[in-house]
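Mods, move this if it's the wrong board.
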Amino acid sequence: MQRLVIVSNRVPAVRDRKQPAGGLAVALRAAVQDHPCLWFGWSGQQIGGDGADRALGVDTVGHVTYATIGLTHKEYNGFYQGYSNAVLWPLCHYRAGFMNYNRHDQQVYASVNTLFATRLAPMLKPDDMVWVHDYHLFPLGKALRDLKVKARIGFFLHIPFPPWSLMRALPEAPALMRDLRAYDVIGVQTEDDARNMNEAFAVLGIPARARVFPIGIDPDSFFACACEGQNLPQVQRLRQDLRGLPLIIGVDRMDYSKGLLERLRGYDTFLKRYPEYRGKVTYLQITPVSRGSVPEYQSLRAELDQIVGHINGTYGAFDWTPVRYLTHPLPRELLAAFFQLSSAALVTPLRDGMNLVAKEYVAAQVPENPGTLILSRFAGAAADMEDALLVNPHDSDEIAAALHKALSLSGSERRVRWERLRAEVWRVTAAGWARSFIAAMSEVRTT
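Not the wrong board. Structure tokens:
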């Protein structure tokens, strides 16, 4: 059987290698189970000096070998904090005004991709299938080809890809697009992303390369996790605190792309327009802090603190807190159980590649009494989840109306909507996504 070589910016932490905890690791679990596998990337550690003598860490769990390298402080700042997350991330999420570009960071980004290629190439075999993941590693395929790697190489972009009219704001955009020619297969989340990327190729005279491979979750596993979690003491305490009243839930990493301010404004409008819900509903927002040293994220946290304080101060009572707001992560089993306990979920990204939280919420529901998903039209998942209550996150009145509708739907109406959403979530799974991309790579002829 051919070996699958996964390359990502981060490799799962040691604690997550037997039982992946989330994100890319969970999505790739099926692919890892089906193939002998090498997983290569950054260890998550910063090292001193210039990195000339950096060691390669190797750990094998089952039939998966994890190979990791550290990054120097300069590389971390330029490659990860700088170019990847202060330039490419905002640009791909249609927020060019948040770009903090400088040529030095771009050069460090290119050098780290070259470093990855240099350390990975000696480990590769001619019949390997190399699967590169996400915006941190756009140029890696070209760097591997420059080292005469002949193996099949595919690339999957997990975040959105913007129109060329926006993408061209990046000074290196033409070169970056040309670097993508090194990949045999290029995958994106949605038809919009594929169209945007292929139009960019067309402008540069490059044949269309992008194809749609929508990502999913493992819904059976998530539902089982949600059911088992009902016995957790935290879930039992929350159920008692709610006293039978409905719970609205939101779960997102703290990021300006997630529409957190917009949904809280929508909830504020909801309590203003529908005063009958005051004291009769609770909103739980779980927002782990990320990239806390970046000024834009520090500003976002301050704004979130302010609006939560405003809502609780305006509408709260001695025995009722309108918003329960957490900025630390919770275990997957606890989140799944909270999803199952809630009457509605607010998932309102301003732009998202797919958004697996929406799919997890649907997967967690009990068929006899499912909750209602309120979903941004700008989430990649929205195209195939039209039975959610779709909203424009910029319109607080629309969010308020959707919350009122979600809490007013009859049991039969909720079940009809959920059954249609369930069919979609079980149709497009993480396993199917991985297998379809690997099948596409398998069809490529090598020279």
